[in-house]
UniProtKB/TrEMBL annotation:
UniProt KW Nuclease keyword: no
Name of the protein described by the UniProt record: Transcriptional regulator
Keywords associated with the record: DNA-binding, Transcription, Transcription regulation
Domain HTH iclR-type: 16-77
Pfam families per the UniProt record, alphabetical: HTH_IclR (PF09339)
InterPro entries listed in its UniProt record: GAF-like_dom_sf (IPR029016), HTH_MetabolicPath_Reg (IPR050707), Tscrpt_reg_IclR_C (IPR014757), Tscrpt_reg_IclR_N (IPR005471), WH-like_DNA-bd_sf (IPR036388), WH_DNA-bd_sf (IPR036390)
Residues of the IclR-ED domain: 78-234
Protein origin, superkingdom: Bacteria
Organism encoding this protein: Dictyobacter formicarum
Length: 234
């Protein structure tokens, strides 16, 4: 059995520096929908501009980032193509938790994903034992800073200057709430789905008519988010 040479670390725990930096570029750009310049990205990564430029050129060659007319860089269409393969897995992982939320909380469960500066309702499950509930259409889009599901995703990402107080509050307590923001008379509560502490790309929550009892609903929502994250890591 070969032994590590002196001063050589075992393979376990090692990372590829260039790949790590490239992934960090994507993480940074995910928080800036309008894009960043090469100097901005270099500063975010604490690397020389030449290194940042090479990273961006490589990512652009794979359509993972794109250059705008004003020489800023944004996330590219290649990420959406990759995400198409991830979405069915996310839906499958979320279904058991969503069904449990819908029945236990007697409210419509919804899984929302981030798409640029919008939240997109990926799938919903309605409770089967209530005479009335909210019908929430999959594919519905709304601004990320409106509604509990979008606020939860923002709370699971990097803090931005001037962000709404509700986002900061949601980040501190692990879930977001809203009332009367997307549908008149409706309330929402949602938690970010985070994998190994990475930036949130999705949230799980419920919507219902009237006010939400946070003390009762919040533990269920947070548990569901953790359950889904664990299922995705299996």
């Amino acid at each position: 059995m070969a032994q590590p040479r002196p001063n050589e670390r075992p393979l376990q725990g090692e990372t590829a520096q260039t790949l790590d930096r490239g992934l960090r570029v994507l993480d940074v750009l995910a928080s800036y929908p309008a894009g960043l310049s090469v100097p901005d990205i270099a500063q975010e990564l604490n690397v020389h501009r030449t290194i940042a430029y090479r990273l961006l050129n490589t990512l652009a060659a794979h359509r993972l980032v794109r250059r705008t007319e004003d020489s800023r860089y944004c996330l590219g269409i290649g990420l959406i193509e990759l995400a198409r393969h991830v979405v069915p897995r996310l839906q499958a992982a979320a279904y058991p938790a969503m069904r449990q939320l819908a029945e236990e909380l007697r409210a419509t469960a919804c899984l929302t994903i981030m798409d640029g500066d919008e939240g997109v309702v990926l799938t919903t499950l309605e409770p089967r034992t209530t005479p009335m509930h909210i019908a929430y259409r999959p594919g519905y889009r709304h601004e990320l800073d409106r509604g509990a599901s979008g606020l939860a995703i923002l709370a699971g990402r990097l803090r931005q200057p001037g962000e709404r107080r509700e986002i900061t509050l949601a980040r501190n307590r692990g879930y977001a709430t809203s009332y009367d923001e997307i549908q008149h008379g409706a309330s929402g509560i949602a938690a970010p789905i985070q994998l190994n502490g990475q930036l949130a790309e999705a949230s799980i929550g419920v919507v219902l008519l009237g006010r939400i009892d946070e003390a009762t609903f919040a533990p269920h929502i947070i548990t569901a988010a953790h359950t889904i994250a664990d299922a995705l890591l299996e």
